[in-house]
Structure formats: structure tokens, C-alpha cells
Amino acid sequence: MSPLSCLFRKLDLPSRAFEAASKGDFELQGYAFQAVTEQQRRPRIVRMGLVQNRTPLPADTPVVKQVTALHRRIEAIVEVAAMCGVNIICFQEAWTMPFAFCTREKLPWTEFAESAEDGPTTKFCQELARKHDMVVVSPILERDTEHGDILWNTAVVISNSGAVLGKTRKNHIPRVGDFNESTYYMEGNLGHPVFQTQFGRIAVNICYGRHHPLNWLMYSINGAEVIFNPSATIGVLSESLWPIEARNAAIANHCFTCAINRVGEEFFPNEFTSGDGKKAHRDFGYFYGSSYVAAPDGSRTPGLSRNRDGLLVTELDLNLCRQVNDIWGFKMTGRYEMYARELAEAVQPNYSPKIVKE
Predict the structure, then answer these.
(1) Local structure of 269: helix, strand or coil
(2) Which of 27, 170, 225, 255 is catalytic?
(3) 84 in catalytic set
(4) Residue-averaged pLDDT of the chain
């Protein structure tokens, strides 16, 4: 067995954090990955917080009340994360709203959209960041007022100073079953930005992007040491894939990956169909949680609950990224120039696959 394999342990978190989590009715788990001690580099220790939660109010509750309730819920969980020494925290995809994109209805769901730069949720997260000296990754439905009031599925990255460091957008939009998201927004146009924080270089691969290996690769090429994958996905559709994809991406790209999924069921006022033969229905099915962190050596934490709100605190030594890279050398042995040339050929309309025949 490699000296880097499966080196994680249970993290010793404060008893008051467990008490607060119990009082708040959410699960708290903590783990730490280890790396080999080096002679010329100090350990680069950072603590990540992954949050999964259900929507606390019914979907037909007025918009402002729903957003306020979710702010309060997240605020309580972030307080516990701060007790646990979390440096970077990430919430689930479109965390300020029900995942209503199945309905294809516009109102009231588009009313949840906000400015990424100065909307109420970004201001709320800026307060959390300043209060707790914590980087906050906040995935929202973005209203882009500078470009015709259009919508995007966006993650806002807020520095521990409280400044908006930047944003990234969902690169791949599903058209699978109930996930009719292109009714609301299209593929992102910001590429694969990586954010240099005080605690390390991070990227955000939103939900459906996890099914695309090249999407993970480009964040890694741009220098990401930790890639978050905030998601909203249901059991029937993807639970068999969930334990594999982020873990495989961590191995293939010599980085840490953080897979986050919401929990619970969400029922909508009106029935909808999905074009896959199902009868009209008012819910997706269950979001199965199971959030986890995977390391570049292939090890991973246990997942959070399938049905409870939760906070997963994971301590990483970012030195492990280079250590695994030196052993396996995927980036050194990758034939990127060949792939780039052949992919450029393959997307041309007159492309003919290179199939050798007798």
C-alpha cells in the first residue's frame, strides 16, 4: 500500500459544537486527511465546511419568507462551523430556494434570483465571512441586470475579508427527466475560474458539471487545489453515480473534491410533466444528501446522512496534492497537446472519426 493511501482520521471537534448541532437538529461530522511531513514545506492545513439542508418552509410560502428562513437556517449552521475552525464553507446548489426548475413555470421562482455582486444573499454572506473570518461559497440563482436581466446558475465566492472575490457559472445544463433547467438559464460563459483565497486555491464545479471529466480537468489545469461540487440531485436519477464521480475526479486531477447534495423532498403547487413518460406529479423525489470529501490519493470521508441536514467539517493538508502528483504524474504524462489538437478537429462540421477498417 502507498504511504499516502487512506490517511484520514476522525476530527476532534468541540463538544459545544455537537451540542449546538443537536439543538439545531442537524448532523455534525468531522474528519482530517493527512499528508507526509516534508522537510522544506510546512503543512498547509485548511478546514472545509460542507452544508446540506432541506428547505424549511413549503414551496408555496411567500418568496421573502422562504429566503429569510433559509438565511436563518444557514446562519445557525455557519455558527457551528465557526466553532469547528472552518476556513472555507460551501452551501448546496441554489441554496436560497426550492429547486423549482422542474416546473418550467416562471413566477414565483424567478423572483428568487438576485444580483451576485450586491444582492441580499451576497450581503448576508459577506457579513458571515467578516464575522467568522471565513471564505463563503454561495451558489444562487443570479439575475444579471447588466446583460438584459437574464438568469444564470451561479456560485459567488466571498473572501474571508468580506469582499466579493468573484463568481463562476454552471457550465453544463441538464435536460434529463425532471431537470428542465434550460427553461431558466443556459450554459455558463465564465469558463473555469479558480479563486486564490488566503487558505488555498478553490474552484466550483456546479452540479451537472460533475458528469463531465473535462470540466473537472480545466479547473485543475487552472490550479485548483480544492474543487467544490454543490448539487441538487435525486436518488432514482444519480445515487449510483454519486460516490464515484467526485472521488474519481480527485484522483484524476491530483486535488481535493467536495461533493454536496441537498436533502428532503420538495412539493410544488402545480403538477408538472417531464417528457419521460411519467404521469404528472408535484415533486422530484428525494434529494439524498450523502455529502463527502475525496482526496487525491483516492481516500474519502464517510458521507453525511441521506435524509438529515448536516455539516461536514474536513481538515485537509493541501501538500497532499503535490505529493500525489509526484507519485502518479498524471499532469506530467497527460498528452494535452494531442488531445487539444484532436478535439479541435472533432468539433469541425466536416470531421470524420479516425476508424481504421480492413
Answers:
(1) strand
(2) 170
(3) no
(4) 95
